[in-house]
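User: two proteins, same treatment. go.

Assistant:
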Amino acid sequence: MNTELLDAPATQLDIDRSRGDFVYPESHEFDAGTGLSHDTIDYIATVKNEPEWIREFRHKALDTFLAKPMPTHWASHDLENIVFQNIRYYLANAKRPTRSWEDVPDDVKKTFERLGIPEQERKFLAGVEAQFDSEAVYSNIKAAVADQGVIFTGSTEGLIKHPELFKKWFGKVIPTGDNKFSALNSAVFSGGSFIYIPPGVKVKHPLQAYFRINAENFGQFERTLIIADEGSEVMYMEGCTAPKFETATLHSAVVELVAMKGAKIQYVTVQNWSNNVFNLVTKRAIAHEEAEVKWIDCNIGSRLTMKYPGVVLKGRKARGEVISIALAGDGQHQDTGAKMIHAADETTSNIVSKSISLGSGRSTYRGLVHIPKHLKGCKNNTECDALLINPTSRTDTYPAITVRGTGNSSQHEASVSQISQEQIFYMMSRGLTEAQAMSLSVNGFVNDLVRQFPMEYSVELKRLIDMEMEGSVG
C-alpha cells in the first residue's frame, strides 16, 4: 500500500515501488522471538503493559486461531506456504510513539524521511502516524484538529488513555472468530490507529497512517478502530511498503469502522507490497441511520492478497460503497472484493471493481450482497470489469447476490476484455513506445475509478501502473 501523495504539480509524498525496496540493519529493543505460543502472548502483553482483560482476550484469540483449520477454499492453496512457527510476531524499539520527529531513532527516521513522511505531514495532512514493524514510532496530530476533540493515536495508546471508548467498540465489528486470520490478529495485534471524531466535527484534511515492514520473516498485525460520532466526517488514508526478501512476510490487519447516525467515513488504501508478502486483511464497517461509509481501495503488489472490505448497513437510509482497483503481475494473485449486508430499510450499496492481470498474474473478484425479504426500499449496484494484458493472464468473478422481498432491487454488470492490439498499434504509430501505449490503455480502463480517489493518490496510481507496464512487454 504505497502512498505517494501528489499535488499537481508539486509532489506531496514521493514514494514509488523502487523507493520502497530498501532495508536497514535490524536493532530491536523488544523481540518476542520466532514462533507462536501462549508465551508469545504473555511477552507481548507484558512488554506493552496491557490490562488483564486484553491479556485474556489475546489468549482466547490464540486458542481460537489454533482451533480453526487453515481455509481450504478460494485462494487458499497458496496459504500452505505460510509457516506460522517461522514468523516473528513482535519487534519494536519503543513501546510508545514519540510526538517529536527529532526523538525518532535515527535508522527509523532515515526510513521514513526516504519515503517522504515528515514533508507529507507538514504540507497536507491533519495528522500522521508512522509504524515501523510492530509499533508506531511517531504519532502527531495538528493542534487545530486536536482542539476540536479529535483523538488520533496508536491502538496501544488508545487502549490505555481512552479505555471506555476503546473497549466499547473493540472487537465488536469484527469478532475474534470471524476467520482464522482475524483470530491471529486478535492474539498478536500491535500498532494500528485509534481515531474518534466527536459529534458534528468535520475533519477538513485527511488523517494518514503509514505502515512499514523492515524485518525479514516478520508478521505485521496492526489493529485500526475508527469511530465517527453522530454527524461527523473524516477521511483516513493508509499506505504500506516492505522490502523484497526471499522468505515470506505476513501482513494480517483488522480494521473496524463505526459510523454513527449521519456520520461519514472515507477509508483510502493504496498498497504497494513487495511480491513476497501475504496480505490477508479483514476490514468491516457498521453504518447507522443515514450514515455513509466509503472504502476506496487499490491493491498493487504482494504475492497473495485476500481482502473484502464490507459494510453492515444497520440503520435506515445508511449507504455503503466500495471502489477498488487491483493489478496482478507475474506470480501474483489479487483475490479482492466487497461485502454489503443490508440490515435496515432504504439502505443503499454500491460496488465498483476493476482489475488488470498481466503476465501470469491472476485477479479475482469475490463479492457478497445480502438483502433479506423483510426489508423495503433497499438498492444495490455491482459492477465488475476485468482487463487481460497477456494470453497467460487470468481473471475470475464470483458474485454472490441474494435479494429477497418485493420492495428491493439489485443490478449487476460484469465484463472481461483483452487489451486491443489495434489500439496499441495505432498509438505506437503515433510515436509512443509499446510500454507507453499499454500504460495509456490501462490508465484509460481505470480512469473513471481513479477519479474517485483523492487527487493525492490518483497521480500515484497512474505512476504505479506506468511502472508495472514497463515490465509487461517484450
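Protein 2:
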Amino acid sequence: MGLSTTTTTTPTPQTEATAEPGPDAGLAARRDALIAAIRGYGRVAVAYSGGVDSAVVARAAYEALGDAAVAVTAVSESLASGELEEAEALARKIGIRHRAIRTEEFADPNYLRNNPDRCYFCKSELYGRLAGLMDQLEVDAIASGANLDDQGDHRPGMRAAGEKGVRHPLQECGLGKADVRALARAWGLPVWDKPAAPCLSSRIAYGEEVTPERVRMVDQAESWLRGRGLRLLRVRYHKGDMARIEVPAEEFPKLTADPVRSELAAAFRGLGFKFVTLDLEGFRSGSLNDLIPPEQLLSRKPGVAAR
C-alpha cells in the first residue's frame, strides 16, 4: 500500500541542551541516553500509534534527527475510532514528520484465526510493510515503542520485530513504563497519563474469529462508555456475541444504576451483542491472556510466539 499524503513538520528540532528537563537528574540522563541511542541508528521510522510509549520514542527521534525521523501509523479495521486523528495531532505537537499506511492483517487467515500468537501475524504485516517502504521513507532503521516492562508480558509480536531487525530504544536504554510516563510528562506530551490502548482485535477472546464486524462492535461499545465519562475500560468479545465490560470497581455504580444500566444494555444490543455482562473483578489489562494454557506461556521465552 502507498503512503498517505499527511505530512507534519516544524523547522528545527530542539537539542538535548534546550529540551525541557526532567524532574530530576536521573530522568534527564535517561532522556539524553535515549536520544543518543536513536541518533546512532541513522535515519529512523518510528512505528507510532500515538500512545505514550511510541510518542516518547517519536519525540526522542525528532530531538535526535529532526526531519530525518518519521512517525508511521498503521491504519486498519483494528484501529479504534479517533486514534489516527489523535496521533496526527500529537505528531504535529512534537514536530515530527508523520505518515499513515494501510496494513492488511485482516487478509491473513492466521490473524483471523485468533490463536494466542495472533499478534505475531499483525506485527509481521506492519514491520514487513515498513521494511518495504524504507527507501521511500528515506530511513535506515525502524524503531518500536516497546518498553522494558513489555519483556515479561505475552508479546508474540516481538518475534516478528526481531525477524525484521526492528530496534527497541526504550528497552535498550532500560526504560520501563513509569520512566516513559515521567519522560512524557517532562516533555509536556498530553498522552503522558493516557491509558494503554492496544488494538481492537485484542478484545476478541482467543479462538473466536477476528472479523471487521466484531471489532466494530467493540469499538462502538467502548466509545459509548467513554461518552459516559469512563476512561479506563475494556469491552471484551466472547463466544455467543457476549460483551464483558471491564472498568475499575469504583466505577461500577456509574453502570449499574438506572437509567444508565438499561440504556447500556439497549445500546449494546443495538450494536449486535446478545449478552451484556460486567466483570466483577474490574479492569485488568491483558485479562484475555488468562485463557492461554499455562504450558504455552511457560514453554516460551519472552517474545517467542506459541506454536
